[in-house]
Amino acid sequence: MADRRRFSPGVRILAAAGLVTAGIAVGLLLGSRGGSPAPSPTAGTAGVAPAASGPVAPDPGLPTLDFSDLTWMDFHGFALPVSPTAGPHILADDRASGFAHTPLGAALAAINIGFRTGSSVSPFVFEPTIAEQVTGVDQPALVAQTRTDAANEGVPARLMGRLPEPVFRFVGVRFDAVTPDRLVLYVATAAEDTTGTTVYAAGRADVRWERGDWRVVAPPGGSWTTVTTRIASSAGFQLFPRR
Length: 243
Prior knowledge:
The chain is of the alpha+beta class.
């Protein structure tokens, strides 16, 4: 991610924290440059709204999630969404697994697993997470890229303190394709840029039910920036309750 050096130290570290964390970094970078939005990732019928378009209504054929029991778990100072019914049901050594075989379980798996594939969570977390909870032909490329990022950023072997001050928040999800054992969705994030303007980004996640739990498919080439884009707003997403 060649442009990571343009961010402040906190953003630079979080930009390597997996999934939509890279996406919000893309959004912040575009916002600071005043440039055009990044091309939208390949999508199915529902897709993500391009930055220049208006609100997009959710596809009525896709699941509507119940967030009534969703809460926020503190992960070294960063808020991650969890649910007592949908998971994760197993939290140990900073890792998360055991998600319900439901659309909400898949969405929470995409976020909780994807976040833990980033370099900032330390090799103690991302190494076993990628080895055991990521699938697909690009899994080796993802672990290689994450190891390189961790080395370049001087990330300690295990994260003991807090992550840098959070520069973005998870906003919601939007499904693109759903079958009982495979879901494709977008996860939206929001942050405020240096002018105080809210910037949105979305990351595409492909999750599959394998060996009794949801697994995240590694992004093309092992880089989450290939499946992220800036978006105009959170319109069309199912929004999480605010913390």
